Amino acid sequence: MADRLGILVTGLLTFVAFKQSIADKLPTVPYQTFTDQYIQTATKIMILLCILSAVSYKVAAVEQFDTIIMGVVIVGATVHHFWATRCHTRARWGQFDEGDE
């Protein structure tokens, strides 16, 4: 269990470090950007994995628990990534210019 949680905590720290490293390079805006939302969702998935890892350690009697949880998380992360890369559309500058007239 320690190895599994160690990898997950390393992933969480990587997300935090990445967000801090790009914070200086991006303009400060009063709303969440798409990148903020994407990193926040990925962080929530990692926290969920930490919780599920601890639960699966306690529910060792069910042999298929890890496999089921892994499948659910992989499907959820894939759907999120697919939505983020294919279905999420950027706002065009023309939409913002129309409001200024």
TrEMBL record:
Q: Which UniProt keywords apply?
A: Membrane, Transmembrane, Transmembrane helix
On the tree of life, the source organism's domain of life is Eukaryota
Alphabetized InterPro entries for the sequence: Neuro_actylchol_rec
Q: Where are the transmembrane segments?
A: 39-60, 67-84
Q: What is this protein called?
A: Uncharacterized protein
